[in-house]
Specification:
This protein is α/β, with parallel strands linked by helices and 473 residues long. It starts with 5 loop residues before the first strand and ends in a 13-residue tail after the last helix.
Length: 473
């Protein structure tokens, strides 16, 4: 699959050239000849003899920027003054800072914000710990906690290298949910150490977002932490993905006219996301799900399965189907990929049921090329921002935690997750719903409000069960 230039791999080129109209055209053509995508051109200096310009170019990474620069250097009369990677420039000195909400104008302010006045607040919290929600950052602050063992598509890169991702997560919490979040990157490969650290820092936070922790440890950590602390614990790689997949599923079903109870889904990927998505689809009423790993379908009696796969085999695949991913897809209504690139082609989608639904979420290369899937599928969604229907966890976690923090919930429940899926789906009105718009944009500010309200409403409805989100296996 041909890679698409992205702002995530963009460079900025500062050039000075003779003030002749044809030179700019040569620069643009040179960049285009190397498949670079120009994002913007600004004039920095203009004289009768020379023009200095800043040119932003999206690339695919690797050696692509160097090939573009080589093409520009070959143009007569063009001098490259500076080149920088825009993503690295954005990350310089980190993406977060701590700022104060109070002004220290004089000694009186200082005596209230710090000693001696602060001691009175400490004593009040010591006598009644619930005061911490009113008089500290706890009410609106979330820990983004990781051991760096399963970072994006990078794998086990460790705690330090995971920090830029955790900073980015904190930025998203603030931008889309008005929730303060802080990275906690724990340098350990031991599940018990990670649990003890998370439990130890919990008092300072109103919630814990577990991030990029490898399976099966992630399941154990979420369960143990939920039972050990009195604040909500949420593993986003599991449940955030499942919530947004659920929202896309609801709208895709509405669009295609399919009946969930009569549908069969096939999921490629039996890790954290695959397990959570399987359960979420059942919670939303789907008829059956077959989950496949590299060896094919998970079924009762298969050897060599870990505890998560054993749970899947017991709780899905009602007909105990045995066979490959391609075999399972024949006649299926929904394909969900949370695995790896280029596993399928358009012909595999053709063999599914009429008007199939395809969610191919592997990044940056989906399980099936979206263009091929679109030839046969009624709806196609990916995890990429350069295709329609991006299934992005940012649609879930900011609003979810905002709702949890506002109502003071101590647990996340499966009922909240199902409500969050419905809330996200509801942002797309019936008039707006179409094949290339089943899920709202990550920048749709209505989403976090809708999700937060749904969570608060579920928390307030005492008639509903409060089913834990963690798995017990």
């Amino acid at each position: 699959m041909k890679r698409t230039p992205s702002p995530g791999n963009s460079i900025s080129i500062c050039v000075r050239h003779a003030n002749v109209p044809s030179v700019l055209a040569e620069i643009v053509n040179g960049i285009a000849s190397c498949d670079g995508v120009i994002g913007g051109i600004d004039i920095l200096e203009y004289t009768t003899k020379f023009v200095t310009r800043q040119i932003v170019v999206d690339t695919v990474g690797g050696d692509h920027p160097e090939r573009i620069l080589a093409a520009v250097r070959e143009i007569d009369g063009v001098e490259i003054l500076e080149v920088f990677d825009r993503t690295f420039r954005l990350h310089e000195r980190g993406k977060l800072e701590v700022t104060s909400k109070v002004a220290l104008r004089d000694a009186a302010d200082l005596s209230m914000a710090y000693t001696p006045g602060v001691a009175r607040v400490c004593e009040a919290i010591h006598k009644d710990p619930s005061f911490a929600r009113d008089y500290t950052i706890k009410r609106n602050t979330v820990a983004v906690l990781t051991d760096g063992s399963a970072v994006l598509g990078l794998g086990n890169i460790g705690a330090l290298a995971a920090l830029p991702v955790m900073e980015g997560k904190a930025v998203l919490f603030k931008e889309f949910g008005q929730v303060d979040a802080f990275p906690i990157c724990v340098d350990t490969n031991d599940a018990d150490d990670l649990f003890r650290c998370a439990r130890a820092v919990a008092p300072a936070f109103g919630g814990i977002n577990l991030e990029d922790i490898a399976a099966p440890i992630c399941f154990d950590i979420e369960r143990r932490l939920t039972e050990a602390v009195d604040i909500p614990v949420f593993h986003d790689d599991q449940h955030g993905t499942a919530v947004v997949v659920g929202a896309a599923f609801l709208n895709a079903v509405k669009l295609t006219g399919k009946t969930p109870a009569k549908m069969r889904a096939v999921i490629s990927g039996a890790g954290a996301a695959g397990v959570a998505c399987t359960r979420a689809l059942y919670d939303l009423g789907i008829g059956d799900v077959i989950v496949c790993d590299r060896q094919g379908a998970l079924y009762r009696g298969r050897d060599g399965m870990n505890s998560a796969k054993q749970w899947l085999a017991q709780n899905s695949n009602q007909q105990n189907f045995r066979g490959s991913l391609r075999d399972a897809l024949v006649g299926a209504d929904l394909f969900l990929g949370v695995s790896g690139p280029n596993l399928l082609n358009g012909d595999d989608i053709r063999k599914m049921a009429p008007d199939p639904i395809v969610f191919a979420l592997s990044n940056p290369i989906p399980e099936v090329p979206p263009e091929e899937a679109a030839d046969y599928a009624a709806v196609v969604a990916t995890g990429r921002s350069d295709y329609p229907n991006q299934i992005n966890n940012v649609l879930c976690f900011p609003g979810l935690f905002r709702g949890l923090l506002q109502c003071g919930a101590k647990r996340v429940t499966r009922e909240m997750l199902a409500a969050a899926s419905r809330a996200i789906a509801s942002v797309v009105s019936d008039d707006e719903l179409r094949a290339d718009y089943i899920i709202p944009s990550a920048f749709d500010r209505r989403v976090s409000d809708s999700v937060a309200k749904a969570v608060i409403d579920v928390a307030a409805d005492l008639s509903l069960p409060q089913t834990p989100i963690y798995f017990e296996f």
